[in-house]
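Protein in question kept in full:
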Amino acid sequence: MNNSAFAEPDCLFSVTAVEQELENIFRAPYFAESPILKKFLSFVVEETIHGRSNCLKEYTIAIKVLEKPLNFNPQENGIVRIHAGRLRRALSRYYSEMGNHDQIVITIPKGKYVPGFANRLNPLDAVLIDRELHDDSFVTDDSDSIIVAVLPFICSSKTGLANSFADGLCLQMSSALMRLTHISVIAYQAVKNLVVSQPDYKELGAFVGFNYIITGGVQLLKHNLRVHMQLVECASYKQIWSETFERTLTSSNLFEIEDELCWYAVSQVTELGVRKYNDHKMLVHSGV
C-alpha cells in the first residue's frame, strides 16, 4: 500500500490515514446501512488519493458507482447529484456527531465530486470545516427536515391530453415547491425515472433521501376531469392531506387548472412546514 502524502502541505495525510478515516466514517449507522453512500464515498476518495481526481465526473460516477448503462445522460437524469447531496448531509452528520474529534475531515464541495481533506488541528482548516458543517447545503438530516418529491400521477385515461395534464401538473408543483423557504425538493424528472424500478415510495424515499411525497391520480372522461391528490409521510405511510377535485377541462383552461391545483398542494406543504416550525419552537421553549 502506498503511504505517501498526496495533499497540499497544510493537509499532509498519508493514504493509510485517509483510508482509516473512511473506516471510521463507515461505522456510522447511516453509512453502514447505505451501500450506495459507502460506495460513492469510497470511489471518489480512492480515485483522488491515487491521483485520478480528474476522472471524477458525473457520468463516470453514474457508470462505476451507480452501475448505470453506458448511454446514461446526466442532463436527463439527476440521480448522481441527488446521491451527492445525500452524501454531503451524511458527512456533515458524522463530523457533527461521532467524528467531531477526528483530525481528518473529508468533505465533498457543493457542485463538485472531488473530495477535500481538511486538518482539524490546522486553525485555517478549522474555520473552513466549521463553515462547511453549518452551510445550508451541508445541514444534518433530522426529523424536522422537509424534503419533498412529486411522484408521477397515475393516469387511468390513456388520452394524450390526460397524460399531458398529469405530467404538467407534477412539473408545476415541483417548480412551485422550490420557492418555499426551508423546503427541499427532489427533481421531478429524476424521481420519475426511478419510480418504475422502485415502486414502493418508502424504499424510494430512503434510497433517494426524501421524507414526504405528493402523489395522486388523474381521470378524464371526455372533458370531465377528476384529480386525486395526496400528501404522504413516507416513513409511516401517514396521509397528511388528501382531496379530490372535479373540473371541466378544455384546451384553453388547462394551464389555469394546473395552476389552481398546484396552489392547493403547495399550501398544504406550507402548512406542514409551519406546524413543524411551531412544534420545534415549543420543544425549545419547554427545554426538551
Notes: The chain has two domains: 9-138, 146-286.
